[in-house]
Amino acid sequence: MTPQQFPAPIDVAGVYDGIGQIYGSAWGPNKHYGYWENDADDSSVEEATDRLTDLMISGIAAQAGQRVLDIGCGIGHPAFRLVRASDVNVVGISVSHVQVAKANELAAEAGLADRATFQFTDAMNMPFPDGSFDAAWAFESMWHMPDRGQVVAETARVLRPGGRLAVADVIERGPVSPAGRAVLDHICANYAVSSLGTIDEYRKVLADNGFVDVEIRDISDNVGRTLDLMADAVETVRDKLVDLVGEEQATSLIDFMRLSAAAPESGYLFLTAVRA
Ligand SMILES: C[S@@+](CC[C@H](N)C(=O)[O-])C[C@H]1O[C@@H](n2cnc3c(N)ncnc32)[C@H](O)[C@@H]1O
């Protein structure tokens, strides 16, 4: 497949360099959901978001010295935690030049520039040789991909046989009510998402691309507190959001975060798989 045949690019960088910067200023350096063990778990956002990173770290089970691909790296915070935990080398990719520059700057500040490098690369069409990574994760990035099958195929190509993959992703959970559809449509329209995946879709594209030992967990209940907390966080920087998108859109974004928090159709999965 040539690049020209890919579905039209969607403006992911526009989201992360725009409203994403404002959300991030209130949410913290992990650009992903938090994971709480149960309703009684009173972990902070920082602890809960790091805990989801730890789940991903255990999912890829990388060994010291291995080379890991971070698909959709944000500003590198999860990669730094992975490098420190597993003593691996990480290559992070993102379609935001702003994020890539920030991630490399933070890696240098943390003394990790020789272990974690970040580059502008579209996961739909990666420049890496076949079999050049021991493990990979797509940490809350797959929901943005115009063609998840294409990314999974590319990931299978760049992983060596036996290489592990972990994915954390926002998904659609059926059955979808009209109110739930409105929430899902809002997510797609405002966060550079063509369509949300489902557990069934993931099972199919992983099997189609030669992944085995697929284990998928619906962790919607564990991450469910995220969107209400994020709405609270964004309220604290509402003025900045209004400056960027105007009063009406800012209200809509925050209202829909709370509606998404309550909608059972707005789900989340964690999966691991092995490239055969
Ligand atoms: C929700 S953020 C997660 C960032 C990071 N994994 C974290 O957990 O902090 C989604 C990330 O996916 C990246 N992304 C989206 N589409 C991409 C694509 N086609 N290729 C590479 N990265 C992509 C975005 O640039 C962003 O860094």
Summarize the topology:
Elements: H1 12-17, H2 19-27, H3 45-60, E1 67-71, H4 77-86, E2 89-94, H5 97-109, E3 116-120, E4 133-139, H6 148-158, E5 159-172, H7 178-190, H8 199-208, E6 211-218, H9 220-223, H10 226-235, H11 238-245, H12 247-262, E7 266-275
Parallel strand pairs: 1-2, 1-4, 2-3, 4-5
Antiparallel strand pairs: 5-7, 6-7
Helix pairs in contact: 3-4, 6-8, 7-12, 10-12, 11-12
The structure holds S-adenosylmethionine (SAM).
Residues 12, 16, 30-32, 72-74, 77-78, 93-96, 99, 122-124, 139-141, 144-145 line the site of S-adenosylmethionine.
Summary keywords:
alpha/beta; Rossmann fold; 12 helices; 46% helix; globular; disordered N terminus
Provide a compact summary of the structure.
With 276 residues, this protein is an alpha/beta fold. The chain has helices at 12-17, 19-27, 45-60, 77-86, 97-109, 148-158, 178-190, 199-208, 220-223, 226-235, 238-245, 247-262, and strands at 67-71, 89-94, 116-120, 133-139, 159-172, 211-218, 266-275.
Strand residues, percent: 15-25%
Instruction: Label the structural class.
Output: alpha/beta
- Count the helices. How many? 12
Mean pLDDT: 95
Model regions low in confidence, pLDDT < 50 over at least 5 residues: 1-6
The largest sheet is: 7 strands, mixed
The CATH class, by name, is Alpha Beta
* Termini gap: 22 Å
| Bound molecule types | S-adenosylmethionine
- Which bin fits the share of residues in helices? 40-55%
CATH architecture: 3-Layer(aba) Sandwich
